[in-house]
Design goal:
binds uridine-5'-diphosphate-4-deoxy-4-fluoro-alpha-D-galactose; binds nicotinamide-adenine-dinucleotide; single chain; alpha/beta; two-stranded parallel ribbon; about 15% strand; 11 helices; Rossmann fold; 7-stranded parallel β-sheet
Length: about 350
């Protein structure tokens, strides 16, 4: 059976963790990444963790010529497509950059896959495609909408994948909608390494803990939630990585193409900002100074997944707890106060 996988964006946060999980499950990996938000050091560390050098090609998903060279060299079972830009604020300021990278880049990749008859894809989508959800927990048939160009780029790619599946029944296009990925590999060797001031909560908390930032601003304490702060479904990146292995295993076992198949990857449990801050302090015995600030534009009160479909179809469910997420984030951050520090 063919088990070679092209991993676009494989040098990034979720990609590196997934490459390790894929290797441990017997998949062969080729990473394709333009290093716009990652580094060689991340790839070196993955090689060290798996005990062999990983095949890496530096390149851009918008470069059809380079992709064709790679598809000519390797017989892939499928592609896991992480490559993309992900900063919501930046997408508002630079929409063309986001649509070009995330939408045009994906179309270029799909066209090359079609040309080479590789029709298995696992795509990184996001809970952001559910906009401001009307009901909780969110399941895969919940209405979709986007509130910013980043979210719109993910939703547009989902529409492209749906149309492609309708037009050609040979495609299997698993669209994984991640909720809030946090945590790091248990070794402390790889983790999330924001190149600027972190937008996301957990990296901000860990940078306060390590002394790179003075205090956390909590955006809003007047939401209709347990304690007034925003509620999200935090999922350990190691569980998320296993979700990708489960998705590929599912495709390997299918006798018919899956078509367009959206699946939530979340824990099914929501935690408030204050609950996460307090858990981090307690687990790691570090005080996290914070202040309440105004709500952040575009934020919603609560968001958490129904993870039933992933369980039923892929036999996957998240195993790791908020305690694991806090411990592993801190191990990575304290062992690497400046991240990979090679950018
Ligand atoms: P990341 O930035 O760490 O990883 C993305 C990788 O893609 C980086 O290594 C970057 O260099 C590479 N890349 C970007 N544009 C490229 C291009 N044109 N060609 C080749 N490589 C390119 O981000 P991540 O957190 O690992 O996210 C991976 C995917 O999951 C992204 O598509 C993101 O939108 C999606 N996602 C992330 C989150 C999250 O909170 N981290 C949530 C939902 C969805
Ligand atoms: N928050 C703070 N202070 C901070 C950062 C965040 O209080 O410094 C709060 C937010 O207001 C929110 C919660 O922490 O209530 C989580 O915020 P994140 O930025 O970590 O995550 P979001 O749910 O806002 O966004 C994430 C990704 C988006 C993606 C979305 C849905 O960053 O790209 O999940 O998947 F679109």
């Amino acid at each position: 059976m063919k088990n070679k996988i092209l991993v676009t964006g494989g040098a990034g946060y979720i990609g590196t963790h997934t490459c390790i999980a894929l290797h441990e499950s017997g998949y062969e990996i080729v990473i394709y990444d333009n290093l716009s938000n990652s580094s060689y050091e991340a790839i070196n560390r993955v090689s060290n963790l798996i005990g062999q050098s990983i095949e890496f090609i530096e390149g851009d998903i918008r470069d059809a010529g380079k992709l064709k060279e790679i598809f000519n060299l390797h017989e892939f079972f499928g592609v896991i497509h992480f490559a993309g830009l992900k900063a919501v604020g930046e997408s508002v300021a630079k929409p063309l950059m986001y649509y070009d990278n995330n939408v045009s880049g994906t179309i270029t990749l799909l066209a090359v896959m079609a040309e080479f008859g590789v029709k298995n894809l696992v795509f990184s989508s996001s809970a952001t495609v559910y906009g401001d959800p009307e009901t909780l927990p969110i399941n895969e048939t919940s209405p979709r909408s986007a509130t910013n160009p980043y979210g719109q780029s993910k939703l547009t790619v989902e529409h492209v994948l749906e149309d492609l599946a309708a037009a050609d029944k040979e495609w299997s296009l698993i669209t994984l909608r991640y909720f809030n990925p946090v945590g790091a590999h248990e070794s402390g060797q790889i983790g999330e390494d924001p190149s600027d001031i972190p937008n996301n909560l957990m990296p901000f908390i860990s940078q306060v803990a390590v002394g790179r930032r003075d205090k956390l601003s909590i955006f809003g304490n007047d939401y209709p939630t347990i304690d007034g702060t925003g509620v999200r479904d935090y999922i350990h990146v190691t569980d998320l990585a296993q979700g990708h292995v489960a998705a590929l295993d599912h495709l390997q076992q299918q006798t018919h193409a899956a078509g367009f198949l959206p699946i939530n990857l979340g824990t099914g449990r929501g935690s408030s900002v204050l609950e996460l801050v307090n858990a981090f302090s307690k687990v790691n015995k570090i005080d996290i100074p914070y202040q309440f600030a105004a709500r952040r534009a575009g934020d919603i009160a609560s968001c958490y997944a129904s993870a039933d479909k992933a369980q039923e179809l892929l036999g996957w469910q998240a195993k790791l707890s908020i305690t694991n997420m806090c411990e592993d984030t801190w191990r990575w951050q304290s062992m690497n106060p400046d991240g990979y520090n090679t950018k």
